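idk why but the lab printer keeps eating my pages so im just putting this in chat instead. protein + iron/sulfur cluster:
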Amino acid sequence: MKTKSLCPECLEVIDAEVYEAEGKILLKKKCEKHGEFDDVYWSDASLYHKFSKWQHEGKAGVTLTKTDKGCPFDCGLCPEHKSSTMLALIDLTNRCNMRCPACFANAAAAGYLYEPTMEQLREMMVLLRSETPPCPAVQFAGGEPTIRDGFVDIVKMARELGFAHIQVATNGIALAKSEQFCHQLKEAGLHTVYLQFDGVTEEPYKKLRGIPALKTKLKAIESCRRGGIKSVVLVPTLMKGVNDDQMGDIVRFAAENLDVVKGVNVQPIAFEGRIDESERKEGRITIPDFMNLLEEQTDGAIPKESFYPVPFVAPISYFVEAWKGVPQLEFTVHQHCGAATYVFVENGRFIPITEFMDVEGFMEFLRDAAEAMPGSKVGKIKAIAGLVSALRKFIDKDKAPEGLDSLTLLASILGIGNREALAEFHRKALFIGVMHFQDTYNFDLERVKRCGIHYATPDLRIIPFCSYNAIHRPSVEKAFSIPLHSTKSQLGNRE
Ligand code: SF4
Ligand code: SF4
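predcted complex ->
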């Protein structure tokens, strides 16, 4: 398949080919000035083909820039973009209280201070909420967002502006120090802590973060628990030879802490900047590798077949949109960007949703039901009633977790349940996801055009995540930064 990629040396757009060889999907490309490059795109061809079935066409929720230099230089969002914002990121600072060798934000090393003002933050959030449909979820990032002055007020602002999900991506140091801080954040409206969490031993932290950080992570989780934050997502950066033997242990750790840990979201490492060819080839790990590792390390309890690509759930939005008559967020990101599943935990045993539910059949059913949805109110009520009874045929009650009735499941899937139904679902369910952010070596314009994870920037643009980190970050930060010089006190101290 022909596509476009970037030259890792000069960042020009060049032709690339995605092709199959020896059971893998590879990407090769040639820059006239800098020669040929090749990389593994997806390490399992059969899973790649399976996921290809679930590509959905979407559209951007807003257009802010013109088509001019071409993708990815027109971000954004430009008229070519094909997904709206499902999760917005806002960097609050490039300061950090750690110095991770693996940091893609290059925080603190840049030599300048990037901290959008409160007014700029408000404008960015207003912009996100003006999309159609309004962006529902914002994640504060950085740098380390928790050390930004006024962080609690920024969370409050997000709540006032109507975000349904407010998250923070953090190393956990500030949370570990104070359950009071966690409590304040919870009161301000914070829903979820995306906690950098690379393993259940100190070794991965020493390699990826430069310090043993496990104790801090455990304390951060405890602080969240005591401070009332009941949704922590563990976010491991997955690297070969560093923590690829810990995927099962991380998921088991999450299951043991299910009262507060609601998910594990794995990020296979992206290679930023110049990297030695052999080191890259040696270290490249892709989504199917993670799925295989988890299957092996859970003795088959969470098989790779339990994972589906992000756009697999698009029919849910089609159905809810047809039913409510209001535009819904459509999960139309590229089918090879990420995968996810829900696993229920019962007496220490994992029950993937696919073990008791015909999820493919159900999605087909939802899509057909959306197309056939009648316009009248009575017709719609009938359609929902039909859905509830039809759902029973997609669920094998004998294999389902105890107490999880089909109504609760349906309400949770469609996001239309009352709070109790949703709480019941989330009490037992663990989300496991994986998203492979792109680097300049495996960059595919087809993927980034469909990206649904977007940065909002102070110049009031909305820039897809992988485009921002590969191309736009330095120019945006420089345009809105002040030089650091000797302002050492502005840098977080390593703790
Ligand atoms: S990534 Fe999207 S917004 Fe950016 S230039 Fe490409 S199509 Fe346009
Ligand atoms: S952030 Fe990158 S990997 Fe994720 S959806 Fe966007 S383009 Fe794909």
